[in-house]
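Page 37, continued from 36.
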């Protein structure tokens, strides 16, 4: 299993990012990809991308890599504009599902846009609380994308953001997850317990760090 290290970012935004990811069991390359962009000068938000190249294997991996290259070049653009430019960049590839999130802890808001089967959930504190699921548009980035716009959600107290590809089953909820685990432990647990053996699988977890961490 291939895993990333938790990325703990400094104050003032004070957010932890972690991912757990693996390729299809029969493949040596991963058709999923993810990235976090820290705030640039004059900006106050983190941007997170999770990409699922269509299918699995080298062609899926090539589509995911092309998506990240496009998103690297459009960091200064809005989420919707970045996604549409990614659509253009992926023409001629197998295509991908792409979800983009922008986290502004200073405003306690999440902006989100997605096309395809990369899902996201935002959980507040408390195992009994229901998650918010940002809308994901149907389509394939690089093949068929509708007119898209980003949606803004308030971030609740002690929030968790979980974004995962369809190689991870969505049949888990907050009551299934330890409340006190760090972001990397949660990502590892979700991948180990809910990933499917028939696809690449990736889960990204974002959560606020305790005050004083960084």
């Amino acid at each position: 299993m291939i895993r990333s290290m938790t990325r703990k970012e400094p104050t003032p935004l004070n957010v932890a990012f972690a991912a757990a990811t693996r390729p299809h069991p029969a493949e040596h390359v991963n058709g999923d990809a993810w990235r976090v962009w820290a705030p640039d000068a004059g900006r106050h938000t983190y941007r997170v991308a999770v990409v699922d190249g269509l299918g699995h294997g080298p062609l899926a991996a090539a589509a995911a890599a092309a998506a990240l290259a496009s998103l690297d070049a459009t960091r200064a653009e809005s989420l919707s504009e970045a996604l549409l430019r990614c659509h253009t960049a992926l023409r001629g590839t197998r295509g991908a599902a792409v979800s983009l999130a922008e986290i502004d802890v200073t405003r306690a808001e999440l902006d989100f846009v997605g096309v395809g089967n990369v899902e996201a959930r935002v959980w507040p504190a408390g195992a009994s609380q229901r998650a918010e699921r940002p809308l994901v548009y149907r389509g394939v980035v690089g093949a068929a994308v509708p007119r898209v716009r980003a949606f803004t959600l308030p971030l609740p107290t002690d929030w968790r953001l979980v974004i995962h590809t369809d190689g991870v089953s969505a049949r888990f909820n907050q009551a299934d997850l330890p409340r006190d685990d760090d972001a990397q432990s949660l990502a590892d647990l979700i991948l180990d317990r809910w990933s499917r053996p028939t696809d690449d699988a990736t889960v990204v977890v974002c959560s606020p760090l305790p005050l004083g961490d960084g």
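The chain has three helices and eleven strands. Flag for discussion at group meeting. The chain has a mean pLDDT of 88.
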